[in-house]
């Protein structure tokens, strides 16, 4: 049984083994089929991948070719654009250089014409001298003939005298006595006639006047040439300043600088010529002064005054020719000047309705005036918002030579026209009305006030508050003192004119006084003012500090200079500079005052000190040192 069971198990195991082998063989066949299918798919994928790589490579080659074509085209376009821009820039530079060259040629032609005119004048003078020499030679010949005739007549007379000598011997003694008397009288008369203190020689007078007129014509011609040189130099400087360096080619810069160097050389030659003319004018004036104060006619005195103005104008012209054309000109003025010649400058503020001509007349810049006259000749009579012409600023600065130059060039309008209407009142005396008219037309500076008592003092004393405000609008000085040390405010307080006092306090930027204070403390304030004035006068100072200003100084000690509010922008530093108080200028600068701060009239403390030179030289020195300290401060 066990053997049979083992056989059965063996057969079962063999059957299972056969079944398993059959299944394994079937599985192997299936796996072989799957492997063959996988191989075919992998081969197909590899072929597709190879084909895709080839296509990608061909596309990359095409893209690379396209990029190379695009880069070549872009390079060609950039090169053509650069060539066109360089061509345009070179054309513009050439046009500008040609324009500048034409201007210089025109200037040279003007100089050439001037030289030709001078040569023609010299030739005419030489011809006149030759004619005079020939006339003198002819006269000398005539004198020689006359001398021979006289000698012949003398010989005949001597012969006749010898014949009659014996007849005249009897009366010779008496004749000698009479002749001696006659010679003594003639000698006395001859001494009187030769004395230069008795009368002037009209021939010499006419010679001096002619010489002065000739020198004046030469000075005017030289100044016209200097004006042309100023115009060319300023225009070249503006052209350089209006174009940034990164927008201008090297050729343009070189051309402009070459033209500018030629213009500067021309200005140097003109400066040397004017220096020689100045020496000639001064020597002529010295010779005139050596003749004595009473020598000469009215015509000669006028000629001498004209020569003095010429000397002053030449002295002002020499620094302008030797310095940079745009030195000291503000940015706003440069911007306005550039706009006249179609140029543009960046930055700079507008001039608030004012013309550059007013600034030039105020600061004595004849070069800027000559430049502006080439474009707007009518600007000489143009008025600023305050109703003032350039002549007003030249006269107020005391520049008589520049004022005469402006008048000679067509500045014939009244220097000033009030913007505000004159208050209507019937209490103004006729003499004061005439003075008011002069102030309205010529300016406050045109009147020399007797004993320092101005119209503002008179209006404050009479209680005319409207006239006080009107006179301050006409540039009256609210801080001016008369010979008695009184300001207009003190006159109003003395006369108990409360309305005028309130107006003056408002204009001076002082604290308004109440009615109780005006009634109770006016006398005390006046006493304080007089005490301060007398104490400062005893110390040798030019004038006292008003008591109101003393209180303002105490207020500055309490709150500081920065927190002060000044009426019309007029600070205590302006007042101190105007009255040459160098000690107060240093004190206010220590407080933190700005020497370049401008009031509503556009004047700084430095301007007031310069206007009052040489009286305010000490204050000007303190202000200049203070400005240097401010600039050097971190």
TrEMBL record:
In its keyword annotation, does this UniProt entry include Membrane? no
Comp. bias intervals (Basic and acidic residues): 27-40
Region annotation (Disordered) ranges: 17-40
User: Keyword set for this entry?
Assistant: ANK repeat, Repeat
Repeat ANK: residue ranges? 352-374, 386-418, 451-483, 568-600
Q: According to its UniProt record, what is one Pfam family this protein matches?
A: Ank_2
SUPFAM superfamilies documented for this protein? Ankyrin repeat
Q: What is this protein called?
A: Invs protein
Q: Which gene encodes it?
A: invs
């Amino acid at each position: 049984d066990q053997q049979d069971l083992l056989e059965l198990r063996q057969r079962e195991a063999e059957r299972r083994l056969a079944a398993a082998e059959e299944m394994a063989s079937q599985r192997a066949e299936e796996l072989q089929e799957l492997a063959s299918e996988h191989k075919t798919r992998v081969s197909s994928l590899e072929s597709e991948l190879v084909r895709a790589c080839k296509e990608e490579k061909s596309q990359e080659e095409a893209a690379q070719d396209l990029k190379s074509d695009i880069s070549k085209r872009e390079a060609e376009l950039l090169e053509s654009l650069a060539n066109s821009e360089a061509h345009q820039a070179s054309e513009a530079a050439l046009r500008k250089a040609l324009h500048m060259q034409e201007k210089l040629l025109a200037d040279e032609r003007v100089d050439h014409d001037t030289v030709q005119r001078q040569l023609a004048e010299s030739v005419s003078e030489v011809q006149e001298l030759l004619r005079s020499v020939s006339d003198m030679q002819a006269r000398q010949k005539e004198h020689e003939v006359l001398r021979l005739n006289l000698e012949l007549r003398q010989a005949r007379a001597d012969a006749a005298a010898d014949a009659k000598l014996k007849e005249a011997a009897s009366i010779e003694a008496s004749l000698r006595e009479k002749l001696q008397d006659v010679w003594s009288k003639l000698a006395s008369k001859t001494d009187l006639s030769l004395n230069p203190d008795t009368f002037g020689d009209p021939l010499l007078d006419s010679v001096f006047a002619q010489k002065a007129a000739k020198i004046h014509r030469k000075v005017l011609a030289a100044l016209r040439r200097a004006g042309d040189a100023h115009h060319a130099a300023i225009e070249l400087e503006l052209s350089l300043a209006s174009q940034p360096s990164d927008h201008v080619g090297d050729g343009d810069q070189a051309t402009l600088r070459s033209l500018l160097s030629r213009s500067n050389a021309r200005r140097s030659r003109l400066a040397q010529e004017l220096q020689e003319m100045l020496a000639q004018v001064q020597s002529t004036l010295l010779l005139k002064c050596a003749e004595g104060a009473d020598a000469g006619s009215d015509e000669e005195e006028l000629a001498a005054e004209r020569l003095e103005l010429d000397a002053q104008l030449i002295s002002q012209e020499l620094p302008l020719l030797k310095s940079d054309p745009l030195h000291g000109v503000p940015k706003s003025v440069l911007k306005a000047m550039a706009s006249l010649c179609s140029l543009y400058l960046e930055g700079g503020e507008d001039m608030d309705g004012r013309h550059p001509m007013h600034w030039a007349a105020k600061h004595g810049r004849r070069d800027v005036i000559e430049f502006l006259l080439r474009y707007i000749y009518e600007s000489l009579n143009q008025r600023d918002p305050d109703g003032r012409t350039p002549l007003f600023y030249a006269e107020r600065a005391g520049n008589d030579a520049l004022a005469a130059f402006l008048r000679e060039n067509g500045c014939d309008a009244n220097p000033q026209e009030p913007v505000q209407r004159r208050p209507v009142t019937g209490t103004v005396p006729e003499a004061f009305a005439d003075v008011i008219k002069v102030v309205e037309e010529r300016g406050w500076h045109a009147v020399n006030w007797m004993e320092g008592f101005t119209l503002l003092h008179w209006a404050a004393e009479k209680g005319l508050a409207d006239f006080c405000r009107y006179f301050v609008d006409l540039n009256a000085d609210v801080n001016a003192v008369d010979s008695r040390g009184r300001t207009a405010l003190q006159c109003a307080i003395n006369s108990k004119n409360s309305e005028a006092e309130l107006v003056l306090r408002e204009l001076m930027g002082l604290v308004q006084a109440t009615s109780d204070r005006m009634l109770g403390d006016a006398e005390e304030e006046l006493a304080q003012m007089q005490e301060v004035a007398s104490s400062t006068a005893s110390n040798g100072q030019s004038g006292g500090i008003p008591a109101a200003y003393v209180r303002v100084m105490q207020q500055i000690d309490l709150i500081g200079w920065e927190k002060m509010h000044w009426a019309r922008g007029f600070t205590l530093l302006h007042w101190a500079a105007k009255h040459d108080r160098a000690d107060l200028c240093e004190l206010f600068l220590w407080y933190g005052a700005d020497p370049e701060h401008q009031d509503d009239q556009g004047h700084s403390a430095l301007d007031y000190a310069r206007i009052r030179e040489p009286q305010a030289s000490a204050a000007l020195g303190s202000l200049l040192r203070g400005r240097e300290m401010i600039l050097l401060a971190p």
